């Protein structure tokens, strides 16, 4: 069974609190998504394989090690986009492959609209990037696409999850490790009053991660 790793890091908890704040503006929100992504990816990549090597320093030779696996960053559009840049700076040789999915408002089922993966896999480790794991449908669909492509090692890196999403992803892809900043309480039910939020949002969550990043809410 894949691991569910909920970060205990104080920096992550601090930044997550700022991220959730309804008063956090899109510019600050994007900065926080970027910083949280770096911290979460740091934890998620702790078991990457290394190849021993040697390096010449100004004073001699030193034993060293280099990453031996090709890494793919797979942001789920749109909200996963904001997670790419910071992680990519840490791993500049990673490949970035976008997967376009949105949730149908009525069914909450993911609808695929963009995928330009080449015929054969080009990376050994895939990090699916999406700040929100709500019902889990989008993450499962992304993992399905990557496995059909031939990806063998996949990790999910997210910022806020609902218990429902963690459960679905574990059930459908028990080999995938889930790295997350926090697991929240529940998902919003079917609205009964006009003022109720739409169904399927994480509570307390942060609202719509795509809208808050791109200023479209
Ligand atoms: C959000 C989020 C995830 C998905 C999570 O995307 O970024 O991809 O919802 O929900 P799920 O776990 O129930 O599938 P959304 O569909 O709102 O698309 P957007 O990022 O383009 O706004
Ligand atoms: N997508 C979001 O952006 N937020 C949620 O709470 C759930 C899905």
Helix content: 25-40%
Mean pLDDT: 97
* CATH topology value: Rossmann fold
What Rg do the Cα atoms give? 18 Å
- Biggest sheet overview: 9 strands, mixed
CATH class: Alpha Beta
The residue ranges in which pLDDT falls below 50 over 5 or more consecutive positions are none
How many individual domains?
1
| Bound compounds | 1-O-pyrophosphono-5-O-phosphono-alpha-D-ribofuranose, uracil
Please provide the count of β strands: 13
SSE ordering: EHHEEEHEEEEEHEHEEEH
Percentage of β-strand residues:
25-35%
Give the number of helices. 6
Helix-strand category: alpha/beta
Oligomeric state of the chains in view: single chain
Top keywords for this entry?
nine-stranded mixed beta sheet, Rossmann fold, 30% strand, alpha/beta, binds 1-O-pyrophosphono-5-O-phosphono-alpha-D-ribofuranose, two-stranded antiparallel sheet
Give an overview of the whole structure.
The chain is an alpha/beta fold. It has a single domain, classed as Rossmann fold, CATH 3.40.50.2020. It has six helices and 13 strands. Strands 1, 4, 5, 6, 7, 8, 9, 10 and 11 form a nine-stranded mixed beta sheet that branches. A two-stranded antiparallel sheet has the order 2-3. α1 (10-20) runs antiparallel to α2 and α2 crosses α3. The longest helix has 19 residues, at 26-44. It is globular and about 70 Å long. The structure holds 1-O-pyrophosphono-5-O-phosphono-alpha-D-ribofuranose (PRP) and uracil. Uracil (URA) is lined by residues 79, 132, 134, 201-202, 205, 208-210.
What's this model, at a glance?
The chain is of the alpha/beta class. The chain has helices spanning 10-20, 26-44, 84-90, 137-149, 163-172, 209-214; strands at residues 4-6, 50-57, 60-67, 71-77, 95-96, 99-103, 110-115, 125-129, 132-133, 153-161, 177-183, 186-187, 202-203.
């Amino acid at each position: 069974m894949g691991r569910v790793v909920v970060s205990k890091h104080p920096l992550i908890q601090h930044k997550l609190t700022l991220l959730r704040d309804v008063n956090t503006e899109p510019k600050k929100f994007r900065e926080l998504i970027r910083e949280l992504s770096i911290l979460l990816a740091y934890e998620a990549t702790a078991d990457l394989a290394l190849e021993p090597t040697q390096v010449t320093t100004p004073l001699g030779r030193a034993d060293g090690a280099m990453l031996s696996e090709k890494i793919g960053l797979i942001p789920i559009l749109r909200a996963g986009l904001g997670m790419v840049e910071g992680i990519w700076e840490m791993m500049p040789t990673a490949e970035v492959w976008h997967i376009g999915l949105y949730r149908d408002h009525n069914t909450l089922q993911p609808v695929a609209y963009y995928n330009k993966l080449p015929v054969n896999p080009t990376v050994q480790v895939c990090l699916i990037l999406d700040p929100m794991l709500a019902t889990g449908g989008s993450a499962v669909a992304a993992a399905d696409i990557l496995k059909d492509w031939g990806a063998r090692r996949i990790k999910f890196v997210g910022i806020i999850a609902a218990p429902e999403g963690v459960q679905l992803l574990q059930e459908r892809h028990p080999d995938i490790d889930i790295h997350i900043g926090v697991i929240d309480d529940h998902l919003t039910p079917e609205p009964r009053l006009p003022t109720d939020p739409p169904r399927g949002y994480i509570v307390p969550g942060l609202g719509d991660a795509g809208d808050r990043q791109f200023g479209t809410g």
